[in-house]
Amino acid sequence: MAAVIRNPPVQSKALHSPPLDEVASVLSGGLKGNFAEVDVRVVPCPDLTKEPFTLACKGLGGSPRLVEVGGVPYLVPLVQRDRLYDLKDVGSWAEVEPAFVIGAGAGPWPYAGVNCEMMVNMEVAAGRVSNHTRIARVDPGDGSCVQEVLPDSETRCALLANLFCAQGTPGQVLQVICKKRTGADDFVSSIRKTLQSFYKDKAVGLGGTFLLKEGKAKQHVMPDFSTVPLNSDADVENWLRFFNMSAPLIAVGTLVSADPGLDLRVQHFHSFSHHGKGGHYHIDTEPDAAHYLGYFAVAEAVCRVDKPQVTHLIGRD
Q1: Rounded Cα distance, 25 and 19, in Å
Q2: Which residue, among 116, 112, 181, has the nearest Cα to 145 in the 3D structure?
Q3: Separation CA 115–CA 231 (nearest Å)
Q4: pLDDT category, 82, cuts 50, 70, 90?
Q5: What Cα–Cα distance (Å) separates residue 91 from each residue in 4, 66, 297?
Q6: 25: helix, strand or coil
């Protein structure tokens, strides 16, 4: 059985942190190229512990950081099962206390018995864990998606994760509302590409949550680890299991407009639900019905944890 990696290497870099009003203005203009209705403004963060979001903390404030752990090269071409981490350590890696941690990753296969998706949603305060994290796996019998909530005692993740970490305090955030997708890009890509176009090589990172209020979304759930090498994006796509999942879906994750030399995954969101479905978000599949409500914070820095020494770009969609 693999042991959790203690004291992995951590690299930190400051990110470009423009004022929220500026980012709101940039997104207000850029997102109109992909959605018929766009409303972006700076607002006090609503209580995210309440429905529909049901997150572990009320807000996104307090030393906001992006934290990327491991990476896809630990999953493909073949899995490296020794890459196992304890998310109770995220606060110490990012120097944030208490630590509200949300995001997308690979779930703890030693707990699940198989490879699985992970929708991280927890608070670690004074060593105590309030864990609302969910995992989603493929049922080997009928191929369906099975979602479950992890107990407070299960705080491990495997292989890779893209996390937002902050103290979870109330404060000002970006509220992004988009309706009726008219372009080819998904909600996350639309935001990232808009920021990239405006800020060029300045790395601006956002973390937070969004709700697909109406419609459906293409999402994948990883099956158990492949026994044959996955050497291309086509190999990865054929291995994954895709589902058309119904709203409402609550997504958590991160995006960054540019990689500041840390081999980052530039966007990664997973969603969970209260109707038993969850997975890796790709795009809405009913564009006319698509209705997104998102709350995001601008990250001050990024922490790169256990960066793979041998890397590639396969499987990063």
Answers
A1: 10
A2: 116
A3: 19
A4: very high
A5: 16, 11, 17
A6: helix
- Spatial distance between the Cα atoms of 65 and 60, rounded to a whole number of angstroms: 10
| CA distance linking residue 308 with residue 160, whole number of Å | 10
Distance of CA 169 to the CA centre of its chain: 19
Tokens of 300: 């001050």
User: What H or E segment, with its residue span, contains residue 267?
Assistant: strand 267-272
Residue 53 corresponds to which tokens in the numbers above?
């979001």
User: With pLDDT > 90 as the criterion, what percentage of the chain qualifies?
Assistant: 99
Within-domain flag for 316: no
Could you tell me if residue 85 is inside a domain?
yes
Residue 108 within any structural domain of the chain: yes
CA distance 19 to 180: 28
Cβ(236)–Cβ(48) under 8 Å?
no
Is residue 70 included in any domain, yes or no? yes
**What's phi and psi for 5, nearest 5 deg?**
-75, 120
- Measured between alpha carbons, how far is 24 from 99 in angstroms, rounded to an integer? 26
What's the N-to-C CA distance of the chain in angstroms?
30
Collapse the DSSP code of 145 into the 3-class scheme (helix H, G, I; strand E, B; otherwise coil) and give the result.
strand
Q: What is the CA radius of gyration of the chain?
A: 18
Paired sense of beta strands 65-70 and 301-305, if any: parallel
Answer whether 213's CB lies under 8 Å from 292's CB. yes
**3-class DSSP assignment, residue 134:** strand
Alpha-carbon distance of 96 to 92, in angstroms, equals 6
DSSP helix/strand/coil, 109: helix
For the chain, the domain total comes to 1
Question: Does the structure show a pLDDT above 90 at 1?
Answer: no
Residue pair 292/179 in contact by the 8 Å Cβ criterion = yes
**Enclosing domain of residue 73:** 11-267+290-296
* 72 close to 315: Cβ distance less than 8 angstroms: yes
The CA angle 222-227-233, to the nearest 5 degrees, is 55
User: pTM for the complete prediction?
Assistant: 0.98
Examine the pLDDT at 154 and tell me if it is beyond 70: yes
